[in-house]
Amino acid sequence: MTALISHLYSQGGPIDLASERLHVEYCPPSPFDRLRVLSFVVNPHYYRAAEQLFGRSRPQVVHCETLWTVLAGRSLHRKHGLPLIWVAENIEARKFAEIGYAKPVVGLLRLIERVACQCADHIIVLSRPDRQGLIDLYGAPPDKITVITPGPDLEDFFFDEASRSDVRKRYGLRSTDALLTFVGNLQYLPNQQAVRRISQVIYPAVSERYPSARFVIIGQRPELLSDFRRENIVFTGYLSRQDLIAHLCATDVFLVPVETGSGIRVKIPEATA
């Protein structure tokens, strides 16, 4: 199911979820949508939809997945007196500063993260450095931060020689030819920067010494990075979970030249599994 939803999203198609235990509340389209994730901060339709959903579902906790939903969650938290849980997948202000966003945007994110640390009853982070970052930057109480480190499902992610052989045959690789692989959503700016680094720095250096080496870039929306195509760089686009794992089995060197962002790069433990 996850693979199907990911594929639909990568093709730009409409996605909906249906379940007896799940209700999705949609906001009407508005000019705020152009702001992408920042629209959650300023879009009044989002706040109204959250309040309406709250009134119908009568929840016992306000769960804010990512920073962008925190201000709406804070409003519900204060109005209804329910505990607020914030899942901080990144320290967004630090990530946006590293990427090079304008100071007003970074300042706004720092303000929201400070508010989130103050109003959340509990905070979940994905790495110990992020936990320490919230403590150092915003004075978040250590005892209300829990680190939950995601990892690969070892029932799926394990080495298989047959899968390795099949993928290497697909690319016409000999046993002595190296396969170097990068995995990431190519709409995400840090991943775009990583592909640029692969194409302009790593690829020339490796190809000069190992001309038969092949590079594979796995991720949706490869058309966004057409300028970085090279003779021995293959952009696969979206791959199913099974095919992704097969490519990892075939890989000799896994590339992660991502220098911005925080959280945890799940692709690394998946590749090493």
Give a nutshell description of this structure.
By secondary structure, the protein is an alpha/beta fold. Helix content is 44%, strand content 12%. The chain has 11 helices and 8 strands.
Structural description of this entry:
There is one protein chain. With 273 residues, the protein is α/β, with parallel strands linked by helices. It has two domains: 11-147, 3-Layer(aba) Sandwich (Rossmann fold), CATH 3.40.50; 161-272, Glycogen Phosphorylase B (Rossmann fold, 3-Layer(aba) Sandwich). Helix content is 44%, strand content 12%. Strand 3, helix 7 (128-138) and strand 4 form a beta-alpha-beta unit. It starts with a helix and ends with a helix. The model has no long low-confidence stretch (mean pLDDT 87).
CATH topology of the largest domain: Rossmann fold
The overall pLDDT, averaged over residues, is 87
Distance between the first and last residues' Cα = 22 Å
- Please report which band the strand proportion falls in: under 5%, 5-15%, 15-25%, 25-35%, 35-45% or over 45%: 5-15%
> Unreliable segments (pLDDT under 50, ≥5 consecutive)?
none
Secondary-structure class: alpha/beta
What's the number of domains?
2
Order of the strands making up the biggest sheet? 1-2-3-4
User: From N to C, what is the helix and strand string?
Assistant: HHHEHEHHEHEHEHEEHEH
Q: Number of helix segments?
A: 11
Q: Let me know the CATH homologous superfamily of the largest domain.
A: Glycogen Phosphorylase B
Computed Rg: 21 Å
The percent of residues in helical segments reads 40-55%
- Principal-axes geometry comes out as elongated
Per CATH, the class of the largest domain reads Alpha Beta
| Strand count | 8
Q: Mind describing the biggest β-sheet?
A: 4 strands, parallel
At CATH level 2, the architecture of the largest domain is: 3-Layer(aba) Sandwich
